[in-house]
Amino acid sequence: SNFVLGNAQVPSAFPVVYCSDGFCDLTGFSRAEVMQRCCACSFLYGPDTSELLRQQLRRALDEHRAFKGELILYRKSGVPFWCLLDVVPIKNEKDEVALFLVSHKDITSTKSCSGTDSTKDTGRRRRFNRAGGKGFNASRRRSRAVLYHLSGHLQKQRKSKHKLRKGIFGDKPSLPEYKVAAIRKPPLILLHYGAFKAGWDGLILLATLYVAVTVPYSVCVGASTEQGLPAARGPPSACDLCVEILFMLGKAPPHPPCPMLAEAWGTRCTDGCPPFPPDIVLNFRTTFVSKSGQVVLEPRAVARHYLAGWFPLDLVAALPFDLLAACQVNVYVGAHLLKTVRLLRLLRLLPNLDRYSQYSAVVLALLMVVFALLAHWVACGWFFLGQREVEGSPAALPEIGWLQELARRLETPYYLARRNCSAGGAGNGTGPGANCSGSGGLLGGPSLRSAYVTSLYFALSSLTSVGFGNVSANTDTEKIFSICTMLVGALMHAVVFGNVTAIIQRLYARRFLYHSRTRDLRDYIRIHRIPRPLKRRILEYFQSTWAANNGIDTAELLQSLPEELRADIALHLHKELLQLPLFGGASRGCLRTLSLGVRPAFCTPGELLIRRGDALQALYFLRSGSMEVLRDGTVLAILGKGDLIGCDLGGPRRARADVRGLTYCALQSLGLPALAEGLALDPDFARAFRRQLPRELSYDL
């Protein structure tokens, strides 16, 4: 974390373009004192610094090669320390050395153990390290974030006429590179927005809809056989087996924690345990978006997120009911009720369907699918209820249930098959009124196809209206079920069908506004014939800023609030900028005035925030991302999170260099007119601010 970056494209000078917080803590120099000085750090030399190592370091910089050595350097306070100096050239996409990474490691304690340094300075250094441990950790994180954007995360790009370029996971170059940042995806990790994951989610959607249709039918309709007994189900179909392969587990693993963590973190299980089903394995390796809006790529974090979320439900839904039936294992109706747990997977599909919610036709189609699915479930329940009424009717079989009424109309009546029947009453026990034991069977009646079609007709007529009476409820149980169905149908009318337009406008108003703005932008670009590169920049900036603020105009939103409340909100939103040491002596009234003048800003990779020669109108605080300061194509400075750029209030107000984004950058800008207004409220702070500003600027433009 103790390093500086030097510009290798400025011969002899090799100026420092970035200085880490760790280097400032190690040497005692501020960032403003280090910037633009030679990256050889000759200002750290002293009487005991080896002249030979100085010359070797200088030759290494001139020849653009690596260097490593141990030498004595001096802090700003004059205290010497042993330093392990490491110089690494950083190449760009043109295979040219663009930067020098010069890292410094304090090895005083190591040298002290061998008697080469004083114990007094060693003790002072250790006490300093213990006191500033937390600050060092924070500075290391900030410095490494900038260094990550600049080195070691992109492949060297070489073109050859006779060889194809190696894959993205091929051999890495020996030297890091310097270019605009790109996302580096770990191996065997799927992006949640990738094409493969989208296709897989579509397949899982079809499988889940298939389960939503077949499971209620299997439980309510398919459970009965021609004899009316709850016997084992028949062999599953090919579609059932395919869906089982997507959801199922082969068998229970002998050590449950082992395979779970092994598959979750990409390791192999050594005890011969079976693998998880494909869907669970892919979910263990699929990225997600955290609450802070960042895409999480780290495998362990992805696995923990899935284990704490949908994994228990997916595990229960993976029980292999149909494969047990295919293996001639008797699975009774009660066990198949557990398959209804798979219907809860429909809740998981709702976020995936959100991407299509901006299209009105898709929304209407989804509503119709939901309505048809509900009608199917009601039909299965209506058939199940009628079947139970027939099986529970007396021996005389009075025709009161809807299935018995349907059988009478179709002239396919029910009758009993006698088993071990004893005579009852005056009869001889052979007629329809015989008193039959529970071992008897129920035969006859309408076909399964006719019964289901009639059930579906009743469900749709009850959900869309009050029914037509040709299929009516006769028993008390059937009447209660019909009442519930009519209430659900009335709710569907009132909430869905009667207010489709209102629902779409209420739920997707922000998306409609986004597409309206996008159409306006495209029409503007087309009318004024804006060239393609500028068009791309306009659309990219619009999409990036919309993703950051969701199209909310903060100024317009807060305009109706009183100024006192707006100042408190602004003070909270911009506290990261106003908590800098530069504003430490300001009164609360001054800070509230300054906070009202802070505006958010956003910069995309390759976009210019400030152009050379422009009038400087604000101070910019970099909240996230990395930027570079350029002059005639030469890198003058590299800026990271927490850097402040601008100009001295008493100096010229025109920029001497360009400021360009390397990554997506979020900034806060404090306008100079608003700054002057705030400083006028506190003259003592204004004088201290003007004295301290040149030292606090990461780069003076």
Automatic annotation (TrEMBL):
Catalytic activity entry: K(+)(in) = K(+)(out)
UniProt membrane topology term: Multi-pass membrane protein
Domain annotation PAS: ranges: 16-64
Transmembrane segments: 359-385, 451-468, 480-504
Any GO MF annotation of the entry: inward rectifier potassium channel activity
Span of domain Cyclic nucleotide-binding: 557-646
InterPro entries xrefs: cNMP-bd_dom, cNMP-bd_dom_sf, Ion_trans_dom, K_chnl_volt-dep_EAG/ELK/ERG, K_chnl_volt-dep_ELK, KCNH_animal-type, PAC, PAS
Protein purpose: Pore-forming (alpha) subunit of a voltage-gated inwardly rectifying potassium channel. Charactherized by a fast rate of activation during depolarization followed by a rapid inactivation at much more depolarized value causing inward rectification due to a C-type inactivation mechanism. Exhibits a rapid recovery from inactivation.
Family: Belongs to the potassium channel family. H (Eag) (TC 1.A.1.20) subfamily. Kv12.2/KCNH3 sub-subfamily.
Self-association state and partner proteins as the record states: The potassium channel is probably composed of a homo- or heterotetrameric complex of pore-forming alpha subunits that can associate with modulating beta subunits. Interacts with KCNE1 and KCNE3; these interactions regulate KCNH3 trafficking to the plasma membrane and its subsequent voltage-gated potassium channel activity.
Name assigned to this protein: Voltage-gated inwardly rectifying potassium channel KCNH3
Organism: Fregetta grallaria (White-bellied storm-petrel)
Classification lineage: Eukaryota, Metazoa, Chordata, Craniata, Vertebrata
